[in-house]
Amino acid sequence: MTFGERIALQRKQLKLSQDDLARKAGTSAPIIGRYERGEIKPSIELPKKLLTNWR
């Protein structure tokens, strides 16, 4: 499973929209969508932010 697939799965399990997750990560919803589709790869900072701000 790719990073993007994991993000999408976890986001859906927590019933968060891409916009909700983007706000928590300090980015935009279109960028979250691109991560989920595997179009771009995040910097190491994004997973760190997600781990600290996930809920």
Could you name the key traits of this structure?
4 helices, Lambda_DNA-bd_dom_sf, 55 residues, 434 Repressor (Amino-terminal Domain), 0% strand, mainly alpha
Task: Give an account of the 3D structure.
There is one protein chain. With 55 residues, the protein is mainly alpha-helical. It has a single domain, classed as Orthogonal Bundle (434 Repressor (Amino-terminal Domain)). The protein is 67% helix and 0% strand. It has helices at 3-13, 18-25, 29-37, 45-53. Helix 1 packs across helix 3 (29-37) and helix 2 (18-25) crosses helix 3 (29-37). The radius of gyration is 10 Å and the shape is globular. The chain starts with a helix and ends with a helix. The model has no long low-confidence stretch (mean pLDDT 89).
CATH class: Mainly Alpha
* Low-pLDDT residue spans: none
Quick one: overall form? Answer: globular
CATH architectural category:
Orthogonal Bundle
Number of strands: 0
Rg, nearest Å? 10 Å
User: How much strand?
Assistant: under 5%
Task: Provide mean pLDDT, rounded.
Answer: 89
Overall SS class: mainly alpha
| Individual helix count | 4
Largest sheet data: none
Q: Output the CATH topology.
A: 434 Repressor (Amino-terminal Domain)
The tally of domains stands at 1
- Residues in helix, %: 55-70%
Distance between the termini: 22 Å
CATH superfamily: lambda repressor-like DNA-binding domains
Provide the succession of SSEs. HHHH
